[in-house]
Amino acid sequence: ASQLSSFGSRSAQHSPPTPSSALGAMAATVGDTGAGAAGAAAAPPAYWNRWVTLAAGMCAMLCSGPIFTFGAIHTDTKRLLGATELQVQLIGVAGDVGLWLKIVPGVVFDLCGARATMSIGALLAASGYLGFYAAVAGGWAAEVAALFWFLAGTGSGFLYTAALFPSVKNFAPHQRGFVTGVLACMFGTSAAVFSSLLGGCLGGSIVDKRCVGGALGGSLLSYVAVLATVVPIVGLLAAVATRQMDISVAMPGRGDRAKLRFVLLFVGCTFLIVVVFGMKLLAAFADRSVNTWGNFVWLVLLAPVLALPAGAGPAQLAEASPEEGRGGVPAAPRLDARQRLASAMTLLKQPRFWSLFFAFGVTVGADLMTLNILSSIVVSREMEREKGGLLVVMQMGADTMARICAGAAVWMGVAPLTKLLVAAPVLTVIAQVFLGLGGNLFLQLAVVLLGLSDGMMWMATPLFVGQAYGLDKVGVNFGLTVLSAAIFQSLFSLALEPHVYSKHLVPGTEVCLGKECFADTHWAVAVLAGCAVFAALHVHVRSRARDMAQQKREAQVSETESFDTENSVDGRQ
Predict the structure, then answer these.
(1) Helix, strand, or coil here: 356?
(2) What are phi and psi of 228, to 5 degrees?
(3) How far apart (Å, rounded) are the C-alpha atoms in residues 355 and 554?
(4) What is the pTM (predicted TM-score) of this model?
(5) How confident is the model at residue 555, as a pLDDT?
(6) What's the pLDDT at 324?
(7) What's residue 22's pLDDT?
(8) How far apart, in whole angstroms, are the C-alpha atoms of residue 182 and residue 273?
């Protein structure tokens, strides 16, 4: 409470640290949990270590992705509200846009810290889900429901930002790829887990393909009520556990064993994905009674996340001064609001940034536009209604797997970061072509490819932004990048898709049938995704050129220092 009430003080920002104030600098850095939040912060508790923050971030990430389950509730929302296709698309896009407006939580994070950002996100999400529940239950206007769904998405954006970047800053540069992958994996797992919860029938029985006497059982209102309760509770608890440790001032304590914990995290996350996805397949094609007990399984599998910090000692004070950091690594400078604005304006002048902006926006916008209309695609192709939820889990399962695998590949040096940025839009092109061709097999292949594309893009982009433009202003810079997703998601879902859908709608009917309902949308998006491939290639080429130039400068400096050392030795001789 004292941290949240004192983040307005900025005195520590303007006075540079000295070697004699190393302990106080570490305490302030860990206690205020933000890039710019200052004030009289206490040293971290003896039980705290960076794994506590990572575990809290994983839990918060899990609760920041239910917005992406809208594809599974699309049809029920449309029916209960009596909305048109355009209106229900407006609701889905509103939640996505709220999530994509990370520029606002980015500014709050950079100025006020992670705890304040996460607490605000929890309260916004609670307000949004409660309002959406009231709107659907009361049959309010679709535009009102869209406003509350937007509010829930905005809260999710706050949770996402505050969950990701403290842990990224707590780990060394060579470890940040895997940390980003793990947190992005939990974000991707969120939709798969919550959509499984939506279709579950905890404690009941399945009679004639319907849940009798069990919890949720596909009930939209019960599902939203669960979100309105669980998300804010987890978010506020995660805020309490979140702290940030500047590795230039403090180092991990005894028993940290990062490599071992990373391996266990990879195995655990992979197993969780396989179990959630496998149980969904089993329930859809073999035994529907899985829905009566399956959700208990993933609840048990998530419990070990809380044991992640076990055995790791608290942070240790580095021997070097805060100006030098440990091993001579400079500590990250603190920037005031004016400096952050100037930095953002400089970023907007770089062609590489705009290429990343376009590639990210088109890829993510296309992937999520498709995710939001999966239930309508199922209806248009006259497939079983349950296939909509199954396709959502397939796409999000592939999405989640791509995040953890891409993070592990970057950590091990197997996959260059910018090549992942190129691969993502390539997969989107292929997927949209499959969707345009039609056929149920192509539909299933397409959702898997879209999941892989989205997962790689969401893992690679925040890590690339931090590496290319600096972690001291990563909140604002990443927020600017993610704005592109809001723009292209709105273009695809509010203009292109409803226009094509209504064009093929038979007069006097409300539901479009046939692959033509969405074919033109997929072909148009495929063309834009092809352009995104070239934009990503530009990012890759420019980044590679900069890396080579940096290596050349470092080699020249090394040669100069070696030459000076030899001359000094010869002179003494």
Answers:
(1) helix
(2) -65, -20
(3) 27
(4) 0.78
(5) 65
(6) 39
(7) 34
(8) 12
